[in-house]
């Protein structure tokens, strides 16, 4: 596996593969790999001949009071894990390579990025879209794989690719969870053992909501209230949002009439965690992850 840090060498490697007729997949990440990231790499491996994983803790998607400085990093460990998963190239540029002096161009998706995490983290999706657009231009992948764990990000990136006519297919991987249900996240490393227990309330509240829907509940407000009460009962939690709405438009709904997104953002101590599921009011439908 190659580890590249310069845009020019990354572009050359991708150009060479394209000239050989290889199909290229890109998995954008911020590193500190867990099984969620590695499952995206497996999906990329199946979808293409060459897999590029980008590892870039993107300063542009962190707010001034967020965890950019303490975000976990371990390039050596990540490189070993990616190589073991059959990744061909790890692209790990320094910040100056992506945002050199004089940088002043940004990519912004409007409506889809306005609510949920976009409301709590102003500028976050502008940073995400900008870096993802740049990565698409450097690597020019045929496919790119994103996790449904960051559901809004997935939909915002899909919108950006469609709106900017970027010739890349976006694939979604379902949320990968710990055995007890907690969604895997690099930020889980911040949690103390007590916080780790409280963090499980996110997943158990999704299960609670799915059960309510199975039992016939269709009122979004009642589902939101039950989910919020469940999360509040776990020590040290503070809800950022509990959202029930349309998975495509990310607009809230009052009643569930089809597959509906339930998305959460919750502070557990000083750590902000997100999770989501698709609620299926139709009794025959299986749980959908994307
Ligand atoms: P990150 O390094 O956190 O920016 O994540 C990189 C990619 O991995 C994004 O597309 C995330 O949605 C995806 N991802 C992170 N955690 C998970 C998870 N638990 N399940 C599925 N995808 C994930």
TrEMBL record:
Pathway: Cofactor biosynthesis; (R)-pantothenate biosynthesis; (R)-pantothenate from (R)-pantoate and beta-alanine: step 1/1. It catalyses: (R)-pantoate + beta-alanine + ATP = (R)-pantothenate + AMP + diphosphate + H(+). It comes from the Bacteria. It is an enzyme of class 6 (ligase). ATP binds at residues 30-37, 147-150, 176, 184-187. The keyword GTP-binding does not apply. GO terms for cellular component: cytosol. Pfam families: Pantoate_ligase. InterPro entries: Cyt_trans-like (IPR004821), Pantoate_ligase (IPR003721), Pantoate_ligase_C (IPR042176), Rossmann-like_a/b/a_fold (IPR014729). Keywords: ATP-binding, Cytoplasm, Ligase, Nucleotide-binding, Pantothenate biosynthesis. It is found in: Cytoplasm. (R)-pantoate binds at residues 61, 153. Its EC number is 6.3.2.1. The active site is at residue 37. SUPFAM superfamilies: Nucleotidylyl transferase. GO terms for molecular function: ATP binding; pantoate-beta-alanine ligase activity. HAMAP family: PanC. Homodimer. Belongs to the pantothenate synthetase family. Catalyzes the condensation of pantoate with beta-alanine in an ATP-dependent reaction via a pantoyl-adenylate intermediate. This is Pantothenate synthetase. The lineage of its organism: Bacteria, Deltaproteobacteria, Dissulfurirhabdaceae, Dissulfurirhabdus.
